[in-house]
Amino acid sequence: MFIILLALGIVSLAAGSVYINPGQILMSFTDIFTGRYSLSAQDELIIFSVRLPRIIFAGIVGASLSLSGVVFQALLRNPLADPYVLGISGGSALGAIIGILIGAGSFYLGVPLLAFFGALATVFLVFIVAGGGRGPLLDNSLLLSGVVVNAFFSAAILFFLSIVNSMELHSITFWLMGDLSRASVKEVWIAAACLIGGFIFLYLQARKLNLFVQGDETARQLGVNVDRSKQGLLIITSLITAVAVSLSGIIGFVGIIVPHMMRLLFGSDHRLLLPAAALFGAAFLVAADTIARIILAPSELPVGVITALCGAPYFIFLLKRKSN
Predict the structure, then answer these.
(1) C-alpha separations of 133 from 122, 137, 223, 231 in Å
(2) Tens digits of per-residue pLDDT, 18-33?
(3) What does the alpha-carbon distance between residue 62 and residue 305 come to, in Å, rounded to a whole number?
(4) Fold of 52-323
(5) Burial class for 30, CB neighbours closer than 10 Å (0-12, 13-18, 19+)
(6) CA nearest 130: which of 121, 120, 138, 122?
(7) What whole-number distance in Å separates Cα of residue 298 and Cα of residue 310?
(8) pTM (global) more than 0.70
(9) How far apart are CA 304 and CA 176, in angstroms?
(10) How many CA atoms lie within 13 Å of 104's alpha carbon, on the beta-carbon side?
(11) Phi/psi at 12 (nearest 5 deg)?
(12) d(Cα 111, Cα 100) in Å, to the nearest integer?
């Protein structure tokens, strides 16, 4: 998976409205140590200032969404669950739209912070709707609560889109469909730190995730505090997703496609599934973003359009497979 990620990274660096030879790209990385320069100033600017930061950011977002998909599917024991099943995407998008409307974009991290707080509020709202404080959390109640909360936020988003002017509408609509071109270097570092910290936490919980797949009763018999562990895993996973969504917009289906493909290849042991899904999720979104950049070059599509075109047929396949 790591080799696939590196290979797709090189292809993505080369592809675009301005094509750059992959051999020269590889030589340019060795130039750092030799002091020789094999690229022109323009190509060097394109690679290191435009494409490389975007590829790194795409990898971080793809890994975050894939990890979240793995955890949600294990906790809810539902193969159709993805990072947005608890309504996090709706809460994050609503927070971002409010930030754009009130002019929070003029402050550093203003819009992403409001999107993050919107997602965080969604997590607690879903727990309240699901009755988290009145007894054990049920998988179906969490799923249904997420659907209800997400439907409410979708209605609120449509309301705000109907009252803004055309320029703001275009900006918001593009962000809602997934946009990897706006994140600054500091925002990429923030997303990377959240991903690394979240991955370490989730990997340490891999044994519990394996037990949750077998059923809550099995986990209880082996000494796991099911309700407390589920709440912690859901909150941490939701925060990872919220950071990614607040910076990149809504990118769907990554959390469904990648976990299933990795289970087919490596099985259901989360000690292997988590790192494999993170690496392949990063590679998948890098590939999707590359297609989004070049298919209508010099214009570009939102990356969410590409992932939806890939994910919708796969979702139907999984749905039919589950019904059979």
Answers:
(1) 15, 9, 22, 11
(2) 888 888 887 777 766 6
(3) 15
(4) ABC transporter involved in vitamin B12 uptake, BtuC (1.10.3470)
(5) exposed
(6) 138
(7) 22
(8) yes
(9) 8
(10) 15
(11) -65, -35
(12) 6
Distance CA 49, CA 55 (A): 11
**3 state SS for 94-143:** HHHHHHHHCCHHHCCCHHHHHHHHHHHHHHHHHHHHCCCCCCCCCHHHHH
pLDDT of 166:
59
Q: pLDDT tens for residues 98-126?
A: 887 787 767 777 777 787 788 778 877 87
H helices within the chain, ranges in order?
2-14, 22-34, 41-45, 52-76, 88-101, 110-129, 139-163, 166-176, 185-204, 206-214, 216-221, 226-248, 254-266, 270-294, 303-323
| Segment 56-97, tens digit of pLDDT | 999 999 999 999 999 988 987 877 777 776 778 788 888 878
User: Cα separation of 1 and 138, whole Å?
Assistant: 35
Tokens 């997703």 correspond to: 241
Calpha distance 249→192 (Å, rounded): 16
**CA distance between the termini of the chain:** 31
pLDDT at 220 over 60: yes
How far is 208 from 205, CA to CA, in rounded Å?
5
The amino acid sitting at 152 is: F
Is residue 324 scored above 70 in pLDDT? no
Q: What is the DSSP letter of 181?
A: S
Hey, where are the domains in the chain? 52-323
